[in-house]
Amino acid sequence: LRPPRPLVPSAIGEDDAPDPPPSPAMRQAAERGKLLHSLFERLPEVAPADRAALADAWLERSAGIADAAVRRELVANACAIISDPDFAGIFAPDALAEAPIAAVTADGSVITGTVDRLLVTPERIRFVDFKTGRNAPAGPDSIPAPHLRQMAAYVAALEVIFPGRKVEAALLYTAGPALFALDRSRLEPHMPGAETAPHPIGAPAAPIAS
């Protein structure tokens, strides 16, 4: 028997319906999201007192953002997210960036993927996935189902890798920026093997950009 093809969470997180043609404002939001994503990758390793200055310098010199007002807004948004007390741990220096995971869940699903930020403690596992698309949901109830399927797959894999530990998931939409913690009750219907899951084992899966 052939083994089941891996389910790649970033692939099953692809939207069911395409976005409308991007307007100039939507393209600007997408570019802003990419810049914030870059700051989220760079700033956690920097001392809090130095983050704003380093972020501003990187935006001006490396990203080519000449408008000081635009830089200030990006810096303020990035620093606010990273220092949020509810999520400060996931952006701490001891958290892992771009952490690869792989596991076989109880229903036989083979889950492989990479999470943007992962924090492992003896009591629980926390992770955040970044979305750099053109739109951010208005609230948790507006999160697209494909994104919930993706996060549910990550949760299922991490529960296998770290048995007995609570797994906590969050989505960060950089276009907002908007950060949403995801209760397990919200993810349960989208878990691999759930009756409502529309992606059976063996369906082709290919990574896509977040």
Q: In words, what does this structure look like?
A:
There is one protein chain. The protein is an alpha+beta fold and 210 residues long. It is 35% helix and 20% strand. The chain contains 6 helices and 5 strands; from the N terminus they run H-H-H-H-E-E-E-H-E-E-H. The protein has helices spanning 9-12, 24-42, 48-61, 68-82, 145-161, 184-187, and strands at residues 96-104, 110-120, 124-131, 166-173, 178-182. Strand 2 and strand 3 form a beta hairpin. Helix 2 (24-42) crosses helix 4 (68-82) and helix 3 runs antiparallel to helix 4. The longest helix is centred in the first third of the chain and has 19 residues, at 24-42.
Q: In summary, what is this structure?
A:
The protein contains six helices and five strands, in the order H-H-H-H-E-E-E-H-E-E-H. The chain is α+β, with helices and mostly antiparallel strands and 210 residues long.
